[in-house]
Design a protein that fits this description.
InterPro entries: MFS, MFS_Transporter. This protein is mostly helical. Helix content is about 75%, strand content about 5%.
Length: about 425
């Protein structure tokens, strides 16, 4: 009886966190897929729109950094329970206002809280994976992909039936907020008690954060994972922002067919994440990350060389299967690298999610405009393939690290 209770509690915690990932995937998709409708509602010019869109990931980075300090005083599960409803309500506010300043405030709140939400969700995922003792992070991100597909599909329904944004958002938020609040009752935080003593230690001129159990967080050690995170999101933002334009303008597809690659990409991302944990358990994280980088690089190569729209779609399919494993495994690797300070490591790593998002789309757009879009696709290809150089950073950390018995250390895996 005593042995069954922790197992059941972990399963409940895993299911409730997966629900939160699903809700966030749906909410984010409902925002990004209806940006043209938001632009029309508020009369925002094409020149001003990029400023609004850039502000969200910048503020999300601020929210992620703030969460690193916030979880020293409260557990990530409590942070997640507070911010997830706020993110949903910020979406509703963005779709219900009438003046530009109201949209600006709503997006600012959305950005700050979504950064805290992303960080706290992945903190919980890392701690749960440690408690399970096997790979489960890809499953959480698979739930996010499923939520994204659901949100994008609902957004399509809203666009098809010409529903006003408040009419589309209000019923969905009315459902998703209670679902998230109920799921939050079963969050499980198995990170241990590492919230006590935090101080800054300067060794060899490099600042590191030392937590009470002796584990240190070094940006030098974390940097390879930060680069992988940025490269993955540069690739992801390239697909989400340029796939339709690429098929229509470069491969001369129809307007209807040009909308298909992103949906295919999301579906293959879901499939890859659904089975990715099994691959990690069987072959190891290093092998899975290398295979994912090779698949993604091959996908970009196929897209760049595609003679027709259908071949281009095959390339975007490979991209989904390859890129989908990189981000979850990067969070998991940070948790293994700093087991006694995984919250801080995840919060810092999460910033590079937004760095990649901010860099990717403008980079490809600038190169495509100045050169051509086929050649522009080779840049994210090269960056994703650089992940292979850092794949050894995903290897398991030797047993005993972070258990409170070793001296303070700085791990260098670069």
């Amino acid at each position: 009886m005593t042995d069954s209770r922790p197992g059941r509690r972990l399963r409940q915690g895993r299911a409730s966190l997966a629900i939160s990932f699903f809700v966030q995937g749906a909410i984010f998709a409902l925002l990004v897929t209806r940006i043209p409708a938001l632009q029309d509602r508020y009369g925002i010019s094409d020149g001003l729109l990029p400023l609004f869109l850039a502000a969200v990931p910048i503020l999300a980075g601020v929210g992620s950094v703030s969460t690193e300090h916030l979880v020293k005083r409260m557990r990530p599960g409590l942070v997640l329970r507070v911010v997830q409803p706020i993110v949903s309500l910020a979406l509703l506010s963005a779709g219900s206002g009438t003046t530009v300043w109201q949209l600006a405030v709503a997006l600012a709140v959305f950005g700050l809280t979504v950064g805290a939400l992303d960080a706290s969700m992945n903190m919980l995922g890392v701690s749960l994976q440690r408690a399970y003792g096997r790979s489960i992070m890809l499953g959480f991100h698979g739930a996010y992909s499923l939520g994204g597909i659901a949100g994008a599909s609902l957004a399509w329904v809203g666009a098809h039936w010409d529903l006003p944004l408040p009419t589309l958002y209000a019923p969905l938020v009315a459902v998703l907020v209670p679902v998230a609040l109920i799921a939050g009752r079963w969050y499980v935080d198995h990170r241990g008690d590492h919230r006590g003593e935090h101080r800054v230690d300067h060794r060899g001129g490099e600042p590191t954060e030392v937590v009470r159990d002796g584990t240190t967080v070094s940006m030098r050690a974390l940097l390879p994972l930060c680069l992988v995170m940025a490269f993955a999101y540069i690739g992801d933002s390239t697909v989400s922002n340029w796939s339709a334009k690429y098929l229509e303008d470069v491969l001369h597809s129809s307007e209807q067919l040009a909308t298909v690659p992103y949906n295919v990409y999301m579906v293959t991302t879901l499939l890859g994440r659904s089975f990715g944990d099994l691959g990690v358990r069987r072959f190891g994280a290093v092998t899975v990350v290398r295979a994912g980088a090779l698949l993604a690089g091959g996908g970009f190569a196929v897209v760049a060389a595609a003679p027709s729209a259908w071949v281009g779609m095959a390339g975007f399919t490979l991209l989904g299967l390859g890129l989908c494993v990189l981000v979850p495994q990067t969070f998991a690797a940070a948790g293994r690298l700093f087991p006694g300070a995984s919250d801080a490591a995840v919060a810092r790593l999460n910033i590079f999610n937004y760095v990649g998002f901010l860099i990717g789309s403008p980079l490809v757009g600038a190169l495509g405009g100045a050169w051509n879009y086929r050649a522009a696709m080779l840049v994210p290809m090269a960056l994703v393939l650089m992940t292979i150089r850092y794949a050894r950073s995903f290897s398991p950390v030797p047993a005993g690290y972070g258990d409170g018995h070793e001296r303070p250390r700085t791990v260098d895996v670069g």
